[in-house]
Design a protein that fits this description.
This is Peptidase C39-like domain-containing protein. The chain is of the alpha+beta class. The protein contains 5 helices and 25 strands. The chain has 2 domains: 151 residues, no CATH class; 131 residues, endopeptidase fold (from Nostoc punctiforme) (Alpha-Beta Complex), CATH 3.90.1720.
């Protein structure tokens, strides 16, 4: 009897083991995100999230795996000789924006490692593709591949034709990574993640909300000095335009149009402001008139609604601090800037 019980127990164990083996479907690993750094120079890797302790280098030829994304830093793994290392880099080294709008592709088009870089793959029809930021004539995207995703660049014309074009294309605003601890404030055309401002999918990675803009006629743009033909508020407004369009209203005058005309101090009305700002849209440069004892001031439009608009500017406090402010049409007219009237509102027209 004991032998029979042992046999039965052994059979049950074997059966249970066989059942477990037969029914245990191997789980797929976490989806990977592959990319190359945006610039062709070497990228510093750090051992800490504060990005203060140098740890190694990522070379332009290295494909990296993205593990975690936040507004300021990203955790990545990268090749180092015959092994793989993990460290932290500035998010701006790999991403033009930390979030964007997702579209369904209406056709196949090629992708590239960088803007103007070598071939990296392709997007297929019906792929769900997130549009991030633009650089020159290219737009960065996140798209699905076998085993995960790639961050890559496509020509902006292909993005417009295959993703943004066509009625009925379902758009979904998403964050690149949902496991970071930064605060997101989404309003359709802009977002603030921590203190990083993103406008129309383009992250303003060189300067932060609450930080200081330069008092020089030059700005940092993706780590390089670029002439803005203005400092403080005016330079910052042109920096925003440069990030969005690759130029500003002084470097490419023919690509910008004044949609407001000059309005004398004290003559601006809510109706005039609404008409001008609505015509200008996101990315436009507002420049006020000056009044006695008050200089001109510049702002960049980052959101427009039926009830008002939102701007980002620098030096409204006289200390070059970068801020974001939302106005109703009437509250702007009665503000210190509204009372100065308009010198121009310049819209990018390409």
């Amino acid at each position: 009897m004991r032998e029979n019980l042992k046999f039965i127990c052994l059979a049950l164990i074997i059966l249970a083991g066989s059942f477990a083996i037969g029914t245990n479907v191997k789980k797929a690993g976490a989806a990977t995100r592959k990319c190359y750094t945006i610039n062709t120079s070497n990228t510093r890797v750090y051992s800490n999230t504060g990005l203060t302790r140098g740890y190694g280098w990522i070379y332009p030829t290295d494909q990296v795996t993205v593990i975690t994304v936040t507004g300021r830093y990203s955790k990545v793994s990268y090749p180092a000789g015959n092994r793989t290392k993990t460290g932290y880099i500035s998010t701006g080294a790999i991403l033009t924006a930390t979030g964007g709008t997702t579209y369904t592709s209406r056709g196949k088009f090629n992708t590239y490692k960088r803007d103007g870089g070598s071939y990296y793959g392709y997007v297929s029809a019906n792929d769900r593709v997130m549009v991030l930021g633009t650089r020159g004539g290219y737009t960065q995207i996140k798209y699905p591949v076998s085993g995960g995703f790639k961050y890559a660049f496509a020509t902006t014309s292909d993005v417009n034709n295959y993703l943004k074009g066509g009625a009925g294309n379902n758009n979904v605003n998403n964050n690149v990574n949902s496991n970071n601890n930064t605060t997101q404030t989404n309003t359709g055309t802009y977002s603030i993640s921590g203190n990083l401002l993103t406008v129309n999918g383009v992250a303003m990675t060189d300067y932060r909300i609450g930080g200081k803009y330069t008092n020089s006629y030059y700005a940092k743009v993706n780590g390089k000095k670029v002439y803005m033909a203005g400092s403080q508020c005016c330079g910052y407004a042109r920096y925003i335009a440069y990030k969005l369009y690759g130029c500003h209203d002084k470097s490419a005058t023919g690509k910008f149009k004044d949609v407001s005309g000059r309005v004398a101090p004290g003559k601006l009305t809510a109706q005039k402001m609404k008409a001008a700002v609505t015509a200008a849209g996101v990315g436009a440069h507002i420049r006020t008139n000056n009044r006695i004892g008050q200089s001109k001031h510049s702002m960049s439009i980052i959101d427009v609604t039926d009830s008002g608009f939102t701007v980002t500017d620098a030096n409204s406090d006289g200390k070059n601090t970068i801020k974001v402010t939302t106005y109703t049409w009437s509250s702007y007219v009665s503000s210190k800037y509204g009372k100065r009237g308009l010198y121009y509102i310049k819209k990018y027209v390409g």
